[in-house]
Design brief:
The structure is a single chain. By secondary structure, the chain is α/β, with parallel strands linked by helices. It has two domains: 3-68; 82-296, 3-Layer(aba) Sandwich (Rossmann fold). The protein is built from 13 helices and eleven strands. The strands form three sheets. A seven-stranded mixed sheet has the order 5-4-3-6-9-11-10, with helices on both faces. A two-stranded antiparallel ribbon has the order 1-2. A two-stranded parallel sheet has the order 7-8. α2 packs across α4 (53-67) and α6 (97-109) packs parallel to α7 (125-133). The longest helix is centred in the first third of the chain and has 16 residues, at 21-36.
């Protein structure tokens, strides 16, 4: 069997589980590069060579996992993000194109130097992406998951990017005290998928990605309310908060920001025209949050 035969048969097997042929073709090329260690060009040059026994055995393991809907990023152990190669495993979400867009958007609209905090960093993609695109940024990132922080720190070492990581739980009232300095920009992609939406998710997501980072329990804006409360202490006057949002609730997050008395806010749409990010600039140093029932409901 040649690598070409292996490729064509494998594409057919992925199409049978529901992938479109172009997507299946891309995934098989990616898996072949991971299997062989060859570049994409080298894979093409070797297509008519016979498959080694070692490669065939490993290939069957890879393909079996993919047919069981395990994300290809977890199989190869990496995901691309803004020119970086990030390690990923089931302890962290796979970086989404929407988050890549958000990170790039921030880097183009906020020239440095800035002190930035990424809350709920996961793989570290936002924090590392911002520092990669804007070396003048001073970036700090945190997560409640020690397993996620281990992945993020490894990604920083692997890509030789200087980001400070902290273990911290945003649900803790003492969360702001974890950090010694106020920030110019706080960014977060908090859990925002509703439990009742679980049936709409792909098998790859619901079966393999960490639910702690996916789902919000109870009110859709639960984490956003908490983030706004923390921002009162953590942002400098005139500082900014940028929050990735569920498309159905982006405007609600904007209203939440404005109703806090803390922000002037707007919704930013992504490249497909979907409301993707709520962004606000701090206008008060000490807002009277206790009198704002929408925040605490």
């Amino acid at each position: 069997m040649t690598y070409r035969d292996l490729k064509q048969a494998s594409i057919h097997r992925l199409v049978q589980i529901g992938l479109e042929e172009p997507e299946a073709n891309l995934e098989i090329r990616w898996l072949l590069e991971h299997l062989t260690g060859w570049s994409g060009v080298d894979v093409l040059l070797h297509l008519d060579h016979s498959v080694t026994a070692t490669h065939l055995e490993r290939w069957e393991s890879f393909l079996r996992r993919r047919i069981q809907h395990e994300p290809i990023q977890y199989i190869v152990g990496t995901a691309p993000f803004l020119g970086l190669t990030l390690n990923v495993n089931p302890k962290v979400l796979i970086p989404r194109p929407e988050t890549e867009w958000l990170t790039h958007w921030l880097s183009t609209h906020f020239p440095g130097p800035l002190r930035i905090l990424d809350i709920g960093t996961g793989s570290g993609c936002i924090a590392l992406g911002l520092k990669h695109l804007r070396p003048e940024y001073q970036v700090t990132a945190c997560d409640v998951s020690m397993a996620a922080l281990e992945v993020a720190r490894e990604n920083a070492r692997k890509n030789q990017i200087d980001v400070q990581f902290y273990s911290a739980d945003m649900l803790n009232s003492s969360f702001p005290e974890t950090f010694a300095t106020p920030f110019d920009l706080i960014v977060s992609n908090p859990p925002y998928v509703l439990r009742e939406e679980a049936h709409t998710l792909q098998k790859e997501v619901i079966a393999y990605e960490p639910h702690l980072a996916l789902f919000t329990e109870g009110a859709p804006l639960r984490f956003y309310r908490i983030l706004v409360l923390h921002a009162a202490k953590m942002l400098v006057p005139g500082g900014w908060m940028a929050l990735e949002c569920h498309t159905d609730f982006a405007n609600d997050v904007r209203i939440l920001l404005e109703d806090s008395g803390l922000f002037k806010a707007q919704v930013i749409h992504d490249l497909s025209g979907k409301p993707r990010m709520a962004i606000g600039q701090k206008i008060k140093k000490e807002p009277d949050l206790i009198k704002r029932p929408t925040l605490l409901a």
